[in-house]
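Appendix B. Chain record.
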Amino acid sequence: MIKILVAAAVGLLVSILFTPYLIRLFSKQGFGQEIREEGPDGHRSKRGTPTMGGVAILVALVAGYFVAHAVSWLRTGDTGPSVSGLLVIGLTVSLGLVGFLDDFIKIRRKRNLGLNKSAKTIGQIVVAVTFAVLALQFADDNGLTPASDNLSYVRDLALIVMPLPIFVIFTFLLISGWSNAVNFTDGLDGLAGGTSAMVLATYVVIAFWQTRLNCADAAEPACYTVRDPLDIAVVAAAAMGGCVGFLWWNAAPAKIFMGDTGSLALGGVIAGVSMTTRTELLAIVIGGLFVVEMISVVLQIAVFRTTRRRFFRMAPFHHHFELAGWAETTVIIRFWLLSAMCCMFGLALFYGEQFTAAGG
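C-alpha cells predicted for this chain:
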C-alpha cells in the first residue's frame, strides 16, 4: 500500500511543479495550440495556449513509478519493477511519443493538422504489435504472462481464446480505440484529464483488490490469476497523480493543453492496465464517457455520409452541448459526473462478480 501512495504522491508533485516550467518554456518557444475554425466561437480565444503538456504527465508517471520502487527497495529490499509494469509504461511513453510528433507538426505548420491518418496509424500499429508480442512472453513461476490470449471481463473468459495473429489484431484495436477515444474527449479544459484520473483511480482499487486475492498467494474461491497486480496498481496510481497535478493547470480556463502527447498516452495506459488486469470488457464500462465520445464521432460520420445531415450539431458530442448554449464549465462538470457514475458502476460490477464467484 505504501508503494501505491508514494507513486501517487510523487506523480502529483512532479506534475504540479513541472507543468509551470513547461508553460513558460512552450510559451517562449511559441508552441501554441491551433483551434478548429468550425469549432464553438468561445474556443477561438484559446488559440496560442501552450500545448504538449502531456509531457508533464509522462514525466510524472515515470518518476512516480520508479521513485515508489526505490523507496520500497530501501524499506523492504523490494525486487524492483515488474515486467507488466514496465510494459505498460513502455506502451504509454511510446504512444506519447507518437502524440508528441503529431503536436510538434501541428505547431510547425501553424494549423490544426499534424500527422496524417496513415502515419499516426502506422505508429499505433508498431507500438501495439510490439506490446502484444511482449505481453505474451515472460511467464512467471506460475505460468502467468503480463497479458492473456483470453478475452476477459473481470477475469479471463475461458471459452474465448485468441490465436496469436488474432490477439495482435485485438490488441491493436484496443490500444488505438482507447487512445483515439481519449483524444476525442480532449476538447474542453480539464475534461480528458479529470476523466482519466477517475478511471485510473478505479484501476488502482481493482488492481489492489486483485493483489489481496491473488491466486498465486492463496488459491481461494474467486481469486484472480493476474501476473503483477500490485505493480499495475503502482502504475495506475502514478498516472492518476500525474493527471491530477496537470489538472491544476489544465482546469478551465486552461493555461496549458495536454495535446495528443497526453491524450494518446493516457489512452495507452488505460488499454495497458485493462489488459494486464484481465478486464478489457469491464474497461468499457469504467471508461464509459470515453467510449460514448468515440461513438458520437463514429455516429456523426456514418449519418452524414448516408444522409448528408448531421446527427449532432458537432462531434465529439461535448461540443454539441456547447453549441446548444451550455457554458463550457457546465459541460465539463456534468461530464465529470457521468464519468464518476461509470467508474462507480464498473467497480460495482467488479465487486459483484467477485462476490458471486465466491458463492455469496
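Further analysis of this model is presented in Appendix C.
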